[in-house]
Amino acid sequence: MSQKRLAAEVATRKDQVMTLAIAFDNSYARLPARFFATARPDVAPAPRLLRLNAALAGELGLDPQALASPDGIAMLSGGPLPSGARPIALAYAGHQFGHFVPDLGDGRAALIGEVLDRQGRHRDLQLKGSGRTVFSRRGDGKAALGPVLREYIVSEAMAALGLPTTRTLAAVATGEAVQRDQPLPGAVLTRVALSHVRVGTFQYFAHRGDVDGLRLLADHVIDRLYPEVASAPNRYAALYAAVVERQAHLVAGWLGVGFIHGVMNTDNMAVSGETIDYGPCAFMDDYDPARVLSSIDHQGRYAYGNQPQIAQWNLARLAECLLPLIDADHDTAVRTAVETLSAFATSFEAAYFGGLGRKLGLADGNGADRPLVVAVLKALAAGKADFTLAFRRLADLADGTIDDDRWLALFARQDEARALLPEWRQRLAATGQAPAAIGRALRAINPILIPRNHQIEAVIAAAVEWDDFRPFHRLADALATPFDETPATADLALPPRPEERVTATFCGT
Ligand code: AMP
Ligand code: MG
Predict the structure, then answer these.
(1) Per-residue model confidence as pLDDT tens digits over 199-223
(2) Catalytic residue among 267, 277, 327, 386
(3) Is there a catalytic annotation at residue 106?
(4) CA 92 to ligand 2 centroid distance, Å
(5) How many angstroms separate the Cα of 331 from the Cα of each of 48, 84, 208, 338?
(6) How far is CA 398 from CA 175, 404, 414, 430, in A?
(7) DSSP result, 423-488
(8) Which residues line ligand 1 (CB under 6 A)?
(9) Where are the alpha helices (DSSP H) in 26-134?
(10) Which of 57, 137, 386, 472 has the fewest C-beta atoms lying within 10 Å of its C-beta?
(11) DSSP alpha helices (H): ranges in 226-271?
(12) pLDDT digit string (tens) for 306-330?
């Protein structure tokens, strides 16, 4: 349903009494008290619904109209909460830029409850920016409008691109200012996740030597996310192997769309394999494996091309936590964990080269096609070509919609790119597919739209400075179908002009 129609519906129902009934089943809140702290989300003074994700609401079995009612908006901005909600802030630790911090936890978020989605899976509903918790330290527990809009756009774009991610159910302006470098409008984002358990959650218990806590946490994770490993001979080793596998696929998926997470601290890595914690994240425009955009990543630790190594490093930290569960004998446990982690590189490479091969229209990015995949990446880097468009326009090249020169125009230096076209054509021909079919397949795998940084910045500026949310809705609407090329969204497919380039992204928390 369109935002406008939703608003109209709500207006006509204004004088009806709306009671928001949600069937919560709060499995995390049933864990022992040391896993979390009770949270008391702040009630927003003047909440205004900015955007509701009606499709996601439907997936969760929630009524979009009820969510857009005054009771719904109250819930989505901090409260009052409907019956059955049990707001908690989760305890976790984490390595931040390589340094261990034993006490992090949800400092500006409250898990208000879990719902069962249409597939019968638990999904967390979490308010981000709803005020202080016991984990807030010196922070205010709030979120500014800009980061909320950024997370809405990027997380939903990620989902539409087909990658595992936390989702955004709603963004609500609170009517309250939050103090950053300057006063900014405040907002609350409702995040939906299969689970908010992070690598850092395991570290929290491991650091305290709380093996019972670790076991309860691991069992909870198996129950929620990996039921298939429950009956394995060594369920904790099997859990670890499954987490490694999902993470390898996730990071390969990120690289395939040019995504840079920006803050891959262990507290920002979900064991569900969902992308989580959209801070100073960004999609790359021109291809450069060393690209860093996060303003807080001074050493380039979380550069685009470093993400696989960092994921592996984070998974090694997870292994350390799981050792006492994997085997009572330390040496045996270490051997098992090391062996399991070694599968990361294999899984990642298979997913990465497989994915890039498909982006070229080839079946076998891991086999005989691999040198060509590597050559394409080199040509993209040498030619500073736009990552998204260079792949997308291969569809047009394959079915004859454009000629070589049009494709090569995407490259500042064309020699390397021109040189690989004959071999690419040969390999495409060897697939035996008709050009039209190849074009179609390539358009279904190479998006025309990604959430480009300069557009996100423009959307945020219009909202924050002019209270104009039309650019935000337009961008969010367009990114819901990132593989569809339409004249109406042609401008959104364009890379930044030199003066529009964003060279640093900020968390803005
Ligand atoms: P992040 O880098 O966004 O993953 O956050 C790291 C830690 O800082 C987490 O424990 C957050 O809960 C906490 N944090 C971030 N921003 C705030 C804030 N405005 N108020 C309180 N805690 C915060
Ligand atoms: Mg975080």
Answers:
(1) 999 999 999 999 999 999 999 999 9
(2) 267
(3) no
(4) 10
(5) 57, 46, 21, 11
(6) 52, 10, 18, 13
(7) HHHHHHHHTT--HHHHHHHHHHHS-S----HHHHHHHHHHHHHH---HHHHHHHHHHTSTT---GG
(8) 104-108, 135-136, 139-142, 263, 267-268, 277, 279, 507, 509
(9) 54-59, 64-67, 70-77
(10) 137
(11) 235-257
(12) 999 999 999 999 999 999 999 999 9
Q: In whole angstroms, give the CA distance from residue 21 to residue 83.
A: 7
How much is the pLDDT for 365?
82
Kind and range of the H or E element at 218? Answer: helix 211-225
How far does residue 414's CA lie from ligand 2's centre (Å)? 41
- Ligand 1 mutation target, pool 136, 196, 505, most atoms within 8 A of CB: 136
DSSP bridge partners of 171: 51, 189
Q: Ligand 1 pocket: which of 88, 99, 108 to mutate (most atoms <8 Å of CB)?
A: 108
Residues with Cβ within 8 Å of residue 124, at least 6 apart in sequence: 28, 111, 113, 114, 191, 192, 193, 194, 195, 196
Query: For residue 104, which atom of ligand 1 is closest to its CA?
Result: 10
Strands 167-179 and 259-260: unpaired
Q: For residue 192, how far is its CA from the centre of ligand 2 (angstroms)? A: 15
- DSSP assigned state of 184: E
- The set of residues, in sequence order, having a beta carbon less than 8 Å from that of 498 and lying 6+ positions away, is none
Residue 262 has pLDDT above 70, yes or no: yes
Residue type at 55?
A: A
CA distance 128 to 191: 7
For residue 15, pLDDT over 50 is answered with no
- pTM given for the model: 0.95
Query: Which residues neighbour 7 within 8 Å (Cβ) at sequence distance 6 or greater?
Result: 68
| CB burial readout 161-181, b (16+ within 10 A) else e | bebbbbbbbbbbbbebebeee
